[in-house]
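User:
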Amino acid sequence: MARRNIPQEQQAAFATQQRQQVGAALWLAAGVLVLIVYRAVVHGMFAQGWWRVW
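Assistant: Predicted structure:
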């Protein structure tokens, strides 16, 4: 991808947008992990093994 002279503000805005996307992805991953652990605990599946959660 050829890079032209991008104004500083536009570059900063793009970086901010990227950070927000990364943050959203992290929150989503954390939420999925919490959900899996919560389901495992509620259904008492740790006694049978964590693979049974799936």
